[in-house]
Design a protein that fits this description.
Length: 233
C-alpha cells in the first residue's frame, strides 16, 4: 500500500492497483504541490462539507469518472452537480472492490457554502476506517476529542491514524495526543495544520510527544509518500 499526503487533510491511498483520495483541497492550499488534474483515482471520499475538504472534489471526480463517497446529504448535493455518488451514513461500510471504507463518527460541523454565500446543511461530519491489503487506516476527518475514540481503538486494529492537530477548528496537539493513545494506532500522522495562519502548529514537536508515549509518528510534507505492508509497522 502506498499513502500520499497532499497537504491539509487530503490523503490518497493506492492499493490493489487502484486508489482513493480523501478530502481533495489543492487549489485553495498554497502549500500543496499537486494540482487537481494530477490526481488519478477510482473514488473520492469526503468527510464533511466545508470548502477546505470538498473544493476540488467535483473536478477530481469528473476527471476520473469516479464516484464521490459521502454522507447522504453531501452526496445528494454532489449528485445535483451531475456527479456519480455513493451516499452512506455513520456506521455503514461501502465495498469499493479494492478497499472497504467504514464511516465513523467525528465531532465537528458540516455546511456547504454556495457561490452566493448561502450555507446548505451538509449532513453530519465523519471520519473513515479504510481496510485493504491487511492494513487498517483511519482518517479522523475534522474532529474534537471524544470518548468513543477508545471504542474505535478497541474495535479496530489501526495501523495508521491521520489526526488533525491544527486547533481552533479541530482538536489541537494535546487532545490529538490523547486521541492517538485511545485509538492505539501503530503509526500517527498529523494533518489539518499550517494551511492557514490560525492553525499553525509544530508537527515535529507533536510527533516527538507521540513517540514519547510509545507510539510511532511521522510528519509528511505535501506530496510526500510512504509505503506500507501488513505487519511492517
Amino acid at each position: 500500500m502506498e499513502i500520499i499526503y497532499h497537504g491539509h487533510s487530503c490523503v490518497q491511498i493506492v492499493t490493489n492497483g487502484k486508489s482513493l483520495v480523501i478530502d481533495p483541497f489543492l487549489r485553495g492550499n498554497e502549500l500543496a504541490v499537486t494540482k487537481p488534474e494530477d490526481i488519478k483515482t477510482n473514488a473520492v471520499l469526503l468527510t464533511h462539507g466545508h470548502t477546505d475538504h470538498i473544493l476540488d472534489a467535483p473536478q477530481v471526480a469528473r476527471d476520473n469518472d469516479a464516484p464521490i463517497v459521502a454522507v447522504v446529504e453531501l452526496a445528494s448535493y454532489m449528485e445535483g452537480k451531475g456527479l456519480k455518488t455513493i451516499g452512506m451514513n455513520l456506521g455503514g461500510t461501502v465495498d469499493l472492490d479494492f478497499a472497504k471504507a467504514t464511516m465513523i463518527q467525528a465531532f465537528h460541523s458540516s455546511g456547504i457554502t454556495t457561490d452566493d454565500g448561502q450555507t446548505i446543511y451538509g449532513g453530519v461530519p465523519a471520519g473513515y476506517i479504510i481496510r485493504a491489503e491487511g492494513l487498517t487506516v483511519l482518517h479522523a476527518g475534522d474532529t474534537a476529542l471524544f470518548g468513543d475514540m477508545k471504542m474505535i481503538g478497541e474495535r479496530f486494529d489501526i495501523d495508521v491514524a491521520f489526526l488533525p492537530i491544527g486547533d481552533h477548528f479541530t482538536m489541537g496537539p494535546e487532545d490529538a495526543l490523547v486521541a492517538a493513545k485511545w485509538l492505539s494506532a501503530k503509526l500517527v500522522i498529523p494533518v489539518h495544520y499550517n494551511s492557514f495562519p490560525i492553525i499553525r502548529q509544530d508537527a515535529d514537536a507533536f510527533a516527538a510527544k507521540v513517540q514519547a508515549q510509545g507510539q510511532n509518528a511521522q510528519v509528511l510534507a505535501p506530496g510526500e509518500k510512504i509505503e506500507l505492508q501488513a505487519g511492517s509497522i
